[in-house]
Structures are given as structure tokens and as C-alpha cells.
């Protein structure tokens, strides 16, 4: 009969369906549609509805009602239930019988097929088995039915899959707890989602909360829900490269160039030697003796220098700028990708270029001995370094030499008769530099220490100011100044760089400070951030009325914009107005900011890696200034490393005071580097 109309009496043996559990119970009393029960061998008192109960055995009328399962007439125990449990062979035989004659059976009749239907222990044991994860029978309305063969096979497949999934889930949790390497391809989709969440948290993105199951697994692994400990865990699991930068996670730089973009770059590289639109307007400057000067390991070379003697003996400096726009058209797929990146990134382990390397180190570059497309600027200076005349035109150049800074320094110093051009260019740039300094430009040159990574690991590289570096830097500033002035004269919208005027410390105060990093620190703290806009404005620290960066179009998208505006204006084609250029610069701003963050994080990480490997844990230093006086956090300069670092400073040091800096803590995975400094 239906469960709702069934009558129960005290002492009946029943099965209870309670919160996905199947339990044995004894009826104590009936109260309408609810019954008082004693559940389990603990005889826990509960009240449940009639619909939740199956009658397993009615109490014989001549016996007193028991209040426990263990009391007569039931006399149940864990041992008796185990002994009464049906065997797999008996159950399989019963299934075959019912499959051949598919008639539903009452519980006692079903138990008769495999044992004694009058035995309460066997009834209870069979009922419990029927409610469990078995696949042979269905229990419906107090009756047993054999499942069809197709259902049995489906359920067994599902059970097998569930078992494998559960096993993989346990392996996943065990791997987290034991911090063992895992194969992500063996994980279930849910675990892959967990791994993806962990990578997000490791990169600092905590916008999506961790599910409770993953939270419990992290607790078992003694891993706090913070970015740094999760990075440690992922490194142990083999799912985070030890030197992978969190800020690179899920960025266009990490993704690299798609196969389609690489194929397009290959196509353009093959076209580079063909005649392309606009080539007929290029001036052939391959006869000029052109050199490129850069770091020895630089492969994308986007500027070169030539010196021409005019008929009257006047020196004319040529600054040649690579012309990537010859191959990459605006809004083309490669141009769109370059705009997404906004710049190349130069990291400790190598560059992440704005254009695919087959182009950026190939036909876009000013390569030695190769005819290369360029935008060439010529400049003539007055005796005091002012600009006397200039010109700008698309060109062909053929660099004769590719020099490192060390090579160029040697040529400038020795000035051999057949190679005096570099010494002459250096003299011109010194005139120009003096001209800028006389107009308020700041000279903040000092050695700079950076960490580079090679096959031997993290290496400290100190770049010293040198004649060739000063010469090249001054030539690039000159190009930016002349192009900005040209843009201003032509009312041309360009990405002008400016800096507000600053009130520097009094001369007497600066003179009292040691020359070099200490004095420079006092000046730098007064300077404002550089500004970027579409109209010209003065640049304080460069001592210029207006300025643009224009000499690295392979590496900086803004420089490519400058070049496109100049060429379009020169050729009478439409140019971007201020509003259009401003919108484009705003679009680039996020990518530029992200690139700067990645570059800073990269250098900070490799500094930490380098300090982890040092046997020396203390260095002489100079106090520069306070960063947070209330926390005793100051900025110190380590001359031996050519680095400025934050340190917990003891005592009351002043600018220029000598200190001894000690390494207190370093952990590159936790982004932790702490120093203390004292007399």
C-alpha cells in the first residue's frame, strides 16, 4: 500500500530515508502522519514522517514492543547484519531470475530468492544493500524490480567514471597536501578550473573566490590563501615556472604571436626586398658611412649615425631611424597586435618584442651591410650647439659597422686617422649637450646596476656612463628635439613629451651634498612625472622647449606614430588630428602601464634571485633620503652594486651618511627582499 496510508505499530522494524542516508529504526509510537523512532544501534530518538519509512518487518502481535534494534524479536547487531548480507553470486542469480520473469517482488519474497525471507537480519541487510550504490535492482513502493540490462550497463559505466573521478580527486588533494608534481592533463575539468583559479590568485587576481573544497585542500597543504604561498605551492606542483612573473599571467606578451601573425610576418619579410609603394621617393644614402651603436646583445637596431662634410666643411650629422611602417600598414593585423603591446619589453632573460622577431631583428632593423629603409634626419649645429638647420626624408641606408658601446668608446678615445668620424660626432654632441645644460638641463648620469640572466643564472651588470653612451643618448635627444620643433612649426599633432618645471634645492644645499647618487637623489625627489600630450610643451630636465621620442619605432608604438605622422604630412596625405591622436594615445596608455609594471617586477624578481645566491650579506652604502620616516624606511645607495634600495634604517642618518646595509630576508617566490642599515 502507499506509504502515506500505511499503518505502523510500536515495535515495527522499519527502514528510514533520512538526508540521503538509509538507516534502520524501531517504531516507538505513531502520531498521525509522524512517528517517534529509535534510530540505529545508538537508539537515537527522532520523529519522522510516514513517507520517509519502509516497513521491513511487523512486530508479531504476542510480543512486547522493543525500543532498540538489538532487542527481541529483532536482535540485530553489526555482526549479524554483516553475516546476513547477500553474496554477489546470490544477487546476480536473483537478478537473472527476475530479468527473465520481470515481476516486482515484496522484500520478504525477494529475500526468499537468496535466503530466508522470515529472518529479520536478512531482510534488514538486503534492504540496506538495495538502498546502497548497487546497479542490479530498483526499490520502488516497497517492491524490488530487476533493472534492464541496458540500465545495468549504463549505471556501471557511470559508477566506473565516478570512481575514477573520485580517485583523481583524491590524487589531486593528496598532491596539494604532499606538494607533489602533477600532470594537469590527468585532472578532471573541475580540478582544471581549480588549477586555473590558483594561477589567478598566484598572479594577484583574487576577484574570483576559491570554492570551499579547494579552500579545505589548501588548508590541508598548510598554504595560506595569499598570492605568494600559492605561487610556492604551484612551483612544487610543477604548474608555475619558478621565475614566471605574476604580472605576465594572461597577457598578450605571455601568449606570444599567433601562428597567423607569424605567417604574416614571414610573408612581409620575404616582401622586404621587393619594390613597395613609396620606395621611389626614398633618397639613396647608402653612400654615407653609417654606423649603429648598441649593446652587444641587441638584435633589433632602430637607429644609426652618419657624418657628412659639406662643401664648405660644415659637418652635417645624419640620424637614421628604422622605418617599420614600410612593411606594416596602419590597422593591419601586425599593427593591431603591436598597438596592443605598445612597446617591446626588455627583461632579464631577453626581450619580448612588439613585432615578431623575423621582422624586428630582420628587415626592419638597420643591419650591417644590408640596404635598409629609414627615416633620415640631418642636423647642422652652430658653434655653441644650437640647431642651425635640419631636414627629414625617407631614405635607404647601408650601415658599414655594427658597433658595441665598448667598440665605439675605443674608436672615440683613439680616434685613428681613418676612423675619426666617431670622435667628431662625439665632439658635436658634447657641444649640443653643453647647449642644453646652459638652458637648465640636468646631468644625472651615474652607474646603473641591473640584473641580467644567462645560462649561468642571474648576473649583476653595471652600466657605466661612457663617451659613446653619452654621444648616442645626446643624438637621440637631438632628434627628438628637432622633430618636436618641426611638428610645432607645422602645427602637427605628435605624442609630445613634457615635464613641468621643478623648484630644485638651493645651490648651496646641493653643493654640500656628495656629488653623484646622493646629490642626484636630492634633485630627483623634486622632479615631477613626465607628461604625454598632443601639443608641444617644455621638458624641464632635458632643457628643451618641446620634445618627442622618435628614434625607436621598432620598440615603441608611440615612436611609430611619430614617424607615420611625419611621413604622411610630408607626402600630403591625411594625418591624425589632436583628438584622433589623443584617443589613440589613451588606448595605448593601459598597455604601456602594464609593460612598465612587468619590467619593474621582472627586475625586482631577478634582484631577489641574485641576492639569494650571494654569500656576501652586507655592503657599504650611502643614505639618500627617507621614504617613510615613521616606519624608519629609507632609500640607500650601494656603490658596489650601483643600486638604490629601500632599507630599514637605524639611528638618524642624513643624506650622504655612510651606512652598512645587511640582507635581512629574501625569497624570490614570495616577492620578499628586506634590508637593514645602520652606522
UniProtKB/TrEMBL annotation:
<feature type="domain" description="RNB">
    <location>
        <begin position="282"/>
        <end position="572"/>
    </location>
</feature>
<dbReference type="InterPro" id="IPR050180">
    <property type="entry name" value="RNR_Ribonuclease"/>
</dbReference>
<dbReference type="InterPro" id="IPR012340">
    <property type="entry name" value="NA-bd_OB-fold"/>
</dbReference>
<dbReference type="InterPro" id="IPR001900">
    <property type="entry name" value="RNase_II/R"/>
</dbReference>
<dbReference type="Pfam" id="PF23161">
    <property type="entry name" value="HTH_RNase_II"/>
</dbReference>
<dbReference type="Pfam" id="PF00773">
    <property type="entry name" value="RNB"/>
</dbReference>
<dbReference type="InterPro" id="IPR056404">
    <property type="entry name" value="HTH_RNase_II"/>
</dbReference>
<protein>
    <submittedName>
        <fullName>RNB domain-containing ribonuclease</fullName>
    </submittedName>
</protein>
<dbReference type="InterPro" id="IPR022966">
    <property type="entry name" value="RNase_II/R_CS"/>
</dbReference>
Amino acid at each position: 500500500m502507499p506509504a502515506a496510508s500505511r499503518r505502523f505499530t510500536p515495535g515495527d522494524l522499519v527502514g528510514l530515508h533520512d538526508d540521503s542516508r538509509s538507516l534502520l529504526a524501531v517504531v516507538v509510537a505513531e502520531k498521525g502522519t509522524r512517528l517517534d523512532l529509535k534510530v540505529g544501534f545508538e537508539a537515537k530518538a527522532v520523529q519522522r514522517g510516514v513517507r520517509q519509512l519502509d516497513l521491513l518487518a511487523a512486530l508479531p502481535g504476542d510480543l512486547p514492543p522493543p525500543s532498540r534494534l538489538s532487542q527481541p524479536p529483532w536482535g540485530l547487531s553489526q555482526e549479524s547484519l554483516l553475516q546476513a548480507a547477500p553474496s554477489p553470486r546470490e544477487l546476480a542469480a536473483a537478478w537473472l531470475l527476475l530479468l527473465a520473469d520481470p515481476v516486482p517482488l515484496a522484500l520478504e519474497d525477494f529475500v526468499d530468492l537468496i535466503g530466508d525471507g522470515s529472518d529479520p537480519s536478512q531482510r534488514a541487510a538486503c534492504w540496506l544493500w538495495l538502498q546502497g550504490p548497487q546497479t542490479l535492482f530498483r526499490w520502488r513502493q516497497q517492491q524490488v524490480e530487476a533493472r534492464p540490462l541496458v540500465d545495468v550497463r549504463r549505471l556501471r559505466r557511470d559508477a566506473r567514471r565516478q570512481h575514477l573521478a573520485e580517485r583523481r580527486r583524491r590524487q589531486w588533494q593528496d598532491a596539494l597536501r604532499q606538494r607533489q608534481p602533477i600532470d594537469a592533463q590527468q585532472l578532471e575539468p573541475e580540478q582544471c578550473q581549480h588549477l586555473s583559479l590558483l594561477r589567478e590568485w598566484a598572479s594577484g587576481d583574487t576577484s574570483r573566490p576559491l570554492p570551499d573544497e579547494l579552500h579545505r585542500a589548501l588548508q590541508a597543504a598548510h598554504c595560506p590563501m595569499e598570492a605568494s604561498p600559492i605561487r610556492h605551492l604551484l612551483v612544487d606542483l610543477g604548474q608555475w615556472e619558478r621565475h614566471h612573473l605574476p604580472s605576465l599571467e594572461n597577457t598578450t606578451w605571455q601568449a606570444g604571436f599567433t601562428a597567423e601573425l607569424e605567417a604574416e610576418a614571414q610573408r612581409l619579410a620575404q616582401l622586404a626586398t621587393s619594390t613597395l609603394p613609396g620606395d621611389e621617393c626614398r633618397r639613396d644614402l647608402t653612400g654615407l658611412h653609417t654606423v649603429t651603436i648598441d649593446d652587444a646583445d641587441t638584435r633589433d637596431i632602430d637607429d644609426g649615425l652618419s657624418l657628412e662634410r659639406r662643401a664648405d666643411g660644415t659637418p652635417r650629422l645624419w640620424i637614421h631611424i628604422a622605418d617599420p611602417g614600410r612593411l606594416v600598414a596602419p590597422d593591419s593585423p601586425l599593427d593591431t597586435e603591436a598597438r596592443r603591446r605598445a612597446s617591446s619589453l626588455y627583461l632579464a632573460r631577453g626581450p619580448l618584442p612588439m613585432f615578431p622577431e623575423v621582422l624586428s631583428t630582420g628587415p626592419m632593423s638597420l643591419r650591417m651591410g644590408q640596404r635598409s629603409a629609414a627615416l633620415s634626419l640631418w642636423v647642422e649645429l652652430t658653434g655653441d650647439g644650437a640647431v642651425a638647420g635640419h631636414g627629414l626624408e625617407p631614405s635607404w641606408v647601408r650601415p658599414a659597422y655594427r658597433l658595441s658601446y665598448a667598440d665605439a668608446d675605443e674608436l672615440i678615445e683613439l680616434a685613428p686617422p681613418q676612423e675619426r668620424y666617431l670622435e667628431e660626432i662625439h665632439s658635436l654632441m658634447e657641444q649640443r649637450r653643453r647647449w642644453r645644460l646652459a638652458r637648465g638641463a640636468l646631468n644625472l648620469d651615474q652607474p646603473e646596476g641591473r640584473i641580467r640572466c644567462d645560462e649561468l643564472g642571474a648576473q649583476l651588470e653595471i652600466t657605466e656612463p661612457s663617451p659613446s653612451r653619452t654621444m648616442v643618448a645626446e643624438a637621440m635627444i637631438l632628434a627628438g628635439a628637432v622633430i618636436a620643433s618641426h611638428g610645432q612649426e607645422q602645427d602637427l599633432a605628435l605624442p609630445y613629451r613634457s615635464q613641468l618645471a621643478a623648484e630644485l634645492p638651493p645651490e648651496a644645499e646641493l653643493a654640500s651634498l656628495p656629488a653623484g647618487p646622493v646629490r642626484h637623489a636630492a634633485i630627483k625627489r623634486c622632479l615631477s612625472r613626465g607628461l604625454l600630450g598632443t601639443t608641444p610643451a617644455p621638458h624641464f630636465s632635458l632643457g628643451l622647449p618641446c620634445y618627442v621620442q622618435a628614434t625607436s619605432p621598432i620598440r615603441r608604438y608611440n615612436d611609430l606614430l611619430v614617424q607615420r605622422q611625419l611621413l604622411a604630412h610630408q607626402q600630403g596625405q591625411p594625418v591624425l588630428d589632436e583628438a584622433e591622436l589623443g584617443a589613440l594615445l589613451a588606448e595605448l596608455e593601459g598597455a604601456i602601464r602594464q609593460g612598465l609594471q612587468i619590467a619593474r617586477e621582472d627586475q625586482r624578481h631577478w634582484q631577489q634571485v641574485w641576492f639569494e645566491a650571494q654569500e656576501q650579506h652586507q655592503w657599504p652604502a650611502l643614505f639618500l633620503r627617507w621614504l617613510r620616516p615613521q616606519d624608519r624606511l629609507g632609500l640607500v645607495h650601494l656603490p658596489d652594486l650601483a643600486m638604490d634600495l629601500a632599507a630599514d634604517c637605524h639611528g638618524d642618518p642624513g643624506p650622504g651618511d655612510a651606512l652598512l646595509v645587511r640582507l635581512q630576508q629574501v625569497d624570490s617566490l614570495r616577492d620578499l627582499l628586506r634590508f637593514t642599515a645602520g652606522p
